[in-house]
C-alpha cells in the first residue's frame, strides 16, 4: 500500500526483516493500521539472503517471500523501504511522534516494472553489497531477483549521470529530480525489530580474514549456496577453484572475551551444520570439518540434525583454532588445539569459513530517549519470563533479535508476542489526537 | 524539459567524482582485456588472470561479474575437476 501522506498509525514497526514483517502482519490482521519502515531497498532482512533454514532445510526465500507478499498487499500495512527513522519522541498522551526520512531512489516505484533494461544499459560496475562484494552490480540495479519491492534503484554515489538508464526505460520511471523526503508521523505504539549485527572478523587478525581471499564468513557461504548465488557453483573467491577440503571455525567473535563478546550466538553451531550438509550435497567429493568448542544443539530437532551431519560424513573436531595462515596456491593452514587430546595440530584446508557471531544492533538507542540496554547491549527486557516483549519504554515492544540472539522460529514467536502486547496496549490506551 | 532528460538536471547540482570515473575506466579496460584474452578460446580463471595480468582473486571478481552480465558463460571443468572454463557468450 503506498504511503500517500498518511500521518496516524496504530503501530510503527521499525525494521522489515522477518520479525518486523511477522509483527506487522499480526497487528494488521487485528485491524490495526501499521507503518512498516525498512532502511534497506528491500524487505526480508538477513533471512531472505539465506540459502536454507535449519533443521528442516526448507528454502529460506520460500518462507520469507509469501509473508512479504502478504504484508505488501495488506490494506492495513503501509510499507516504506529505503527509509530511515530519524528519531522517535514519546509525547505526553501515550503516543509517539516519529520523524522519518525517505531517501530518493531516483525511480518512481509505482511505474517501475522491474524489467531491468536500465540495469543492462548502465555502464558502471561496483561491488555488489548483497553478494558480500564477491561480484559486481550496476549503479542502476535491482538488489536481487526476489527483492521486494522488485523495482530498480539508482546508486547515486556511483552514478556517472550518463543518462543511459533514463533513455532505455520503457515506462519513463527514472527520475533524477527526486529528493529525499522527511515526514512526521504519529503512532500509538512502536515495535522495534531492528535485528542484529554480525561480528566483523577483521577484528581477529590471526584468522587472516580480508588478507587471505579463501577465508570467508558464513554469510558469504550462504550466498555461495543460495540459488541466487554470485558464482556459477560453490567456488573459492580467491581463484575460482572448486573447494574440496573445507573448514568451519565456530564461535568466531562469540564466547570470546578477548573480542568483548562473551555470549553464545545461539545460531552459529546449527547454521554451520546446515551449511556442512548442503556442501556435502553440492560438492559430494568434499571433506567438511567443523572446529568447535561445544556443539549447542538445544532446539527442537537440532540434536537429530547434528547426528544426521555426522552420519553424512561431516568431521567434527573439538578444537580451538589459534591461527590461520595462507600457504601456496591460496590454501590455508589451520593451527588448532585438539581439546580432547590436549595437543596442538596443523591441518591444511582449501577454504575456511568463519562462523561469525551475533552482536547487538545499537540503532534503537540512537532513535529514542529512555532506551535501556542489557549488559550485552541488546534491548533491556522489563520482565524476561512473563512479558519478554516489553522494553524499558511503555508502548515500545521488542521483536526478534533486538532483545538477544535467537534463531528464526524464536524470532517469529517473539514477533508474535510483541504484536500481541502492542495490540493490548493500543486497545487499552485511549489516545485523543 | 522533457521527462527523459532529468539526468541533465541532476548534473547541474551533482558533480561525478573522479573516483567513479576512474573505476568505470578501469572496469572497461579490464573487461576489454578479458574479452581479448578469451577470443574464441575457453580459459580457466587462473589462465585468464595470467593472460590479463590480474591476481586470481581480481580475475574471479571480473569474470563472475561478466558471467552475471551475460558476457561470459561457464562451459566445463578441467581434467582435475578443479576449475571451470569460461568463454564469450555469442
Question: How do you describe this structure in short?
Answer:
With 433 residues, chain A is of the alpha/beta class. Helices cover 22% and strands 26% of the residues of chain A.
Task: Please supply descriptive tags for the structure shown above.
heterodimer; A: 433 residues; alpha/beta; FAD/NAD(P)-binding domain; Alpha-Beta Plaits; seven-stranded mixed sheet; 26% strand; B: 90 residues; alpha+beta; Arc Repressor Mutant, subunit A; two-stranded antiparallel ribbon; 4 helices; 2 strands
Describe this structure in words.
The complex is a heterodimer of chains A (433) and B (90). By secondary structure, chain A is of the alpha/beta class. Chain A has three domains: 8-102 and 180-195 and 361-428, 3-Layer(bba) Sandwich (FAD/NAD(P)-binding domain); 104-178, Alpha-Beta Plaits (2-Layer Sandwich), CATH 3.30.70; 199-358, FAD/NAD(P)-binding domain (3-Layer(bba) Sandwich), CATH 3.50.50. Helix content of chain A is 22%, strand content 26%. Chain A contains nine helices and 22 strands. In chain A, helix 1 runs parallel beside helix 9 (408-428), helix 5 runs parallel beside helix 6 and helix 6 packs parallel to helix 7 (302-312). The longest helix of chain A is centred in the last third of the chain and has 21 residues, at 408-428. In chain A, 51% of the residues are buried. Chain B is elongated, with a radius of gyration of 18 Å. Chain A binds chain B through residues 120, 123-127, 134-136, 138, 156-163, 166-167, 169, 172, 174-177, 213, 230-233, 235-242, 285, 330, and chain B through 3-11, 14, 16, 20-21, 23-24, 27-28, 44-46, 49, 56-57, 59-65, 67-69, 74, 77, 81-84.
Amino acid at each position: 500500500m503506498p504511503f500517500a501522506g498518511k500521518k496516524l498509525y496504530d503501530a510503527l514497526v521499525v525494521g522489515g526483516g522477518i520479525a518486523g514483517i511477522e509483527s506487522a502482519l499480526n497487528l494488521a490482521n487485528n485491524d490495526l493500521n501499521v507503518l512498516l519502515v525498512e532502511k534497506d531497498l528491500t524487505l526480508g532482512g538477513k533471512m531472505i539472503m539465506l540459502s536454507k533454514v535449519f533443521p528442516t532445510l526448507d528454502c529460506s526465500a520460500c518462507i520469507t517471500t509469501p509473508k512479504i507478499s502478504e504484508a505488501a498487499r495488506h490494506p492495513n500495512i503501509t510499507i516504506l523501504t529505503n527509509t530511515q527513522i530519524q528519531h522517535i519522541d514519546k509525547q505526553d498522551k501515550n503516543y509517539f511522534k516519529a520523524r522519518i526520512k525517505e531517501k530518493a531512489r531516483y525511480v518512481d516505484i509505482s511505474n517501475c516494472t522491474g524489467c531491468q533494461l536500465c540495469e543492462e544499459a548502465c555502464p558502471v560496475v561496483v561491488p555488489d553489497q548483497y553478494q558480500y562484494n564477491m561480484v559486481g552490480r550496476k549503479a542502476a540495479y535491482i538488489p536481487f531477483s526476489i527483492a521486494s519491492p522488485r523495482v530498480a534503484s539508482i546508486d547515486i554515489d556511483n552514478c556517472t549521470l550518463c543518462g543511459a538508464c533514463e533513455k532505455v526505460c520503457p515506462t519513463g520511471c527514472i527520475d533524477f529530480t527526486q529528493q529525499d523526503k522527511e515526514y512526521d508521523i504519529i503512532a500509538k505504539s512502536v515495535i522495534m525489530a531492528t535485528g542484529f549485527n554480525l561480528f566483523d572478523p577483521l577484528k581477529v587478525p590471526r584468522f587472516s580474514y580480508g588478507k587471505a581471499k579463501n577465508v570467508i564468513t558464513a554469510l558469504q557461504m550462504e550466498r555461495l549456496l543460495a540459488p541466487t548465488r554470485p558464482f556459477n557453483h560453490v567456488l573459492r573467491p580467491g581463484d575460482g577453484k572448486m573447494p574440496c577440503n573445507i573448514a568451519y571455525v565456530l564461535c568466531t567473535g562469540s564466547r570470546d572475551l578477548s573480542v568483548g563478546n562473551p555470549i553464545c550466538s545461539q545460531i552459529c553451531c546449527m547454521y554451520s551444520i546446515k551449511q556442512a550438509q548442503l556442501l556435502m550435497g553440492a560438492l559430494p567429493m568434499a571433506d567438511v570439518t567443523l572446529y568447535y568448542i561445544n556443539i549447542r544443539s538445544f532446539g527442537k530437532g537440532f540434536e537429530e540434525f547434528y547426528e544426521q551431519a555426522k552420519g553424512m560424513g561431516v568431521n567434527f573436531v573439538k578444537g580451538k583454532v589459534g591461527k590461520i595462515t595462507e600457504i601456496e596456491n591460496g590454501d590455508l593452514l589451520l593451527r588448532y588445539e585438539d581439546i580432547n587430546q590436549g595437543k596442538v595440530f596443523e591441518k591444511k584446508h582449501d577454504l575456511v569459513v568463519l562462523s561469525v557471531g551475533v552482536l547487538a544492533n545499537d540503532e534503537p538507542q540512537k532513535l529514542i530517549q529512555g532506551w535501556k540496554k542489557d549488559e550485552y547491549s541488546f534491548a533491556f527486557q522489563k520482565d524476561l519470563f512473563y512479558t519478554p516483549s516489553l522494553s524499558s519504554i511503555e508502548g515500545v515492544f521488542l521483536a526478534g533479535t533486538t532483545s538477544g540472539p535467537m534463531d528464526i522460529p524464536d524470532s517469529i514467536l517473539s514477533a508474535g508476542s510483541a504484536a500481541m502486547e502492542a495490540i493490548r496496549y493500543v486497545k487499552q490506551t485511549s489516545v485523543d489526537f | 524539459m522533457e521527462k527523459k532528460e532529468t539526468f541533465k538536471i541532476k548534473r547541474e547540482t551533482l558533480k561525478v567524482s573522479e573516483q567513479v570515473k576512474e573505476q568505470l575506466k578501469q572496469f572497461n579496460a579490464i573487461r576489454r582485456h578479458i574479452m581479448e584474452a578469451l577470443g574464441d578460446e575457453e580459459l580457466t580463471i587462473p589462465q585468464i588472470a595470467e593472460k590479463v595480468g590480474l591476481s586470481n582473486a581480481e580475475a574471479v571478481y571480473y569474470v563472475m561479474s561478466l558471467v552475471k552480465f551475460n558476457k561470459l558463460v561457464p562451459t566445463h571443468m578441467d581434467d582435475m575437476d578443479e576449475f571451470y572454463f569460461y568463454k564469450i557468450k555469442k
